[in-house]
């Protein structure tokens, strides 16, 4: 048996290794393997084969034809060699079974070198190999050089396989017909996919955030009882008062002047009445003016009583216990006011609520009894629990220029709050899948924008 050796195997190996690392695609790398490996040892034919793809590349051919008899014969032969030999081997046809030997003798010369490239133990479908056929055998040193070339080439090939694997992703892996036959610990992608799908349907509370404030639940509104000029406040802002305590008074200058005039007119009218009554007794006759003066006296007395009642009403007193809630007192001094104009509120600190304003874009179905968690702006590490009492049907214009729905929530019995404390409320409603919770707002924006 004659043998042939390469003249400069190490130099050729370095040259091929550099070209393999510079290859731009997997097809270019496969072409390099089957055609340019001749620089390391002589051969007539070579076949690059994969367990999943079959014949990937042939020497002297740009693109193998899968249905060609030669390609099909090489596929059967390589599958036999891959299953029989786990390491590099120089073979003759006498060492094969009858079917494999028949394929060999029909298409190949006398000597064949089989070089397994990759045989992953966890996935036999990823096994690949190189078949080289020649009219003369090779030395063992040639076989060693070729194995070293295979390691260099395999490293470059793995780079493209990893890219392809990442590009195809989980869908490509699930299309593997044998994935169900693999042990569970060999299916991490499947487990991850199941967990991701399950996570999208994990139930979460539908919730929205709204600007909120702690307010009195049912405050007593104190209004102006009569037209006039505002006098002065008799309490300070946020001062606690009891029932009957004076809150503020109207300017009494005009009322006092009218009252003095009414008293003077009453005294004058009474004097005239007494004079006419005395004259009628002396003359012994009835004076017709007496009845008219008596009516005027009653009229003046009624006017005086009315003015006295107005004067007493000009000092407004608290109808119940509470805290006087109003703004800057200086803005009211000397201000003309009308009957029914609101001046302040009396709030019961033991009966507080959370008032929230939910924007129209964030509006979701909210029912009485839904849970509310209030996060005060002044205390970011604390929260207050409450329960929705009602939500308004109509949106109201806000000072910020937008429209929002008013929501009132009752504090839980064990919770306490500070009147006027502002913050953000998280309103939680029904349970929904996580995917709906995450996609609701984007889908709403898309639908409003595109009109779908």
Question: Can you give a write-up of this model?
Answer:
It is a single chain. The protein has 452 residues and is α+β, with helices and mostly antiparallel strands. The protein folds into 3 domains: 3-168, Beta-Lactamase (2-Layer Sandwich); 252-313; 348-450, Elongation Factor Tu (Ef-tu), domain 3, CATH 2.40.30. The chain is built from 9 helices and 22 strands. The protein has helices at 9-21, 26-36, 69-84, 98-107, 140-174, 188-200, 253-283, 289-313, 434-450; strands at 3-4, 45-50, 54-58, 89-92, 111-118, 128-134, 137-138, 203-216, 220-223, 228-233, 240-241, 246-250, 315-317, 322-325, 336-337, 342-347, 352-359, 371-376, 384-391, 396-397, 403-411, 422-433. Strands 8-17-21-19-18-22 form a 6-stranded antiparallel beta barrel. A 5-stranded antiparallel beta sheet has the order 3-2-6-5-4, with helices on both faces. The protein has a 4-stranded antiparallel beta sheet with strand order 9-16-14-11, with no helix packed on it. Helix 1 runs parallel beside helix 5 (140-174), helix 3 packs across helix 4 and helix 7 packs antiparallel against helix 8 (289-313). Residues 1-6 and 166-171 have low confidence and may be disordered. It is found in: Cell envelope.
């Amino acid at each position: 048996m004659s043998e042939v050796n390469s003249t400069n195997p190490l130099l050729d190996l370095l040259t091929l290794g550099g070209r393999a690392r510079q290859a731009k695609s997997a097809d270019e790398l496969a072409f390099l393997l089957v055609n340019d490996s001749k620089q390391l040892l002589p051969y007539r034919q070579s076949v690059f084969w994969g367990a999943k793809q079959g014949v990937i590349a042939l020497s002297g051919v740009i693109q193998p034809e899968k249905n060609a008899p030669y390609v099909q014969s090489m596929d059967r032969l390589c599958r036999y060699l891959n299953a029989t030999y786990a390491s590099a081997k120089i073979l003759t046809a006498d060492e094969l079974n009858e079917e494999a030997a028949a394929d060999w003798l029909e298409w190949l010369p006398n000597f064949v070198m089989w070089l397994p490239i990759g045989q992953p133990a966890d996935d036999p479908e990823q096994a690949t190999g190189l078949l080289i056929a020649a009219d003369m055998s090779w030395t063992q040193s040639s076989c060693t050089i070729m194995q070293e070339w295979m390691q260099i080439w395999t490293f470059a090939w793995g780079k493209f396989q990893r890219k392809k694997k990442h590009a195809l992703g989980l869908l490509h892996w699930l299309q593997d017909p044998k994935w169900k036959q693999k042990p569970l610990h060999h299916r991490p992608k499947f487990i991850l996919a199941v967990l991701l799908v399950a996570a999208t349907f994990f139930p979460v509370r539908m919730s929205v955030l709204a600007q909120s404030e702690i307010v009195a639940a049912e405050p007593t509104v104190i209004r102006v009882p009569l037209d006039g000029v505002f006098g002065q406040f008799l309490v300070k802002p946020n001062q606690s008062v009891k029932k009957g305590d004076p809150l503020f008074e109207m300017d009494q200058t005009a009322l006092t002047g009218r009252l003095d005039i009414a008293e003077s007119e009453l005294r004058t009218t009474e004097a005239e009445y007494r004079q006419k009554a005395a004259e009628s007794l002396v003359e012994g006759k009835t004076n017709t003016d007496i009845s008219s003066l008596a009516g005027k006296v009653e009229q003046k007395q009624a006017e005086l009583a009315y003015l006295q009642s107005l004067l007493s009403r000009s000092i407004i007193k608290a109808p119940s216990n509470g805290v006087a809630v109003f703004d800057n007192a200086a803005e009211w001094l000397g201000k003309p006011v009308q009957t029914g104009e609101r001046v302040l509120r009396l709030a019961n600190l033991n009966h507080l609520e959370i008032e929230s304003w939910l924007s129209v874009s964030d509006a979701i179905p909210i029912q009485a009894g839904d849970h509310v968690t209030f996060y005060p702006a002044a205390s970011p590490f604390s929260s207050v629990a409450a329960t929705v009492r009602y939500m308004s049907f109509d949106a109201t214009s806000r000072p910020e220029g937008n429209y929002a729905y008013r929501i009132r929530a009752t504090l839980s019995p064990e919770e306490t709050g500070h009147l006027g404390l502002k913050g953000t409320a998280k309103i939680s409603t029904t349970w929904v899948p996580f995917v709906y919770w995450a996609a609701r707002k984007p889908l709403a924006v898309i639908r409003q924008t595109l009109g779908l």
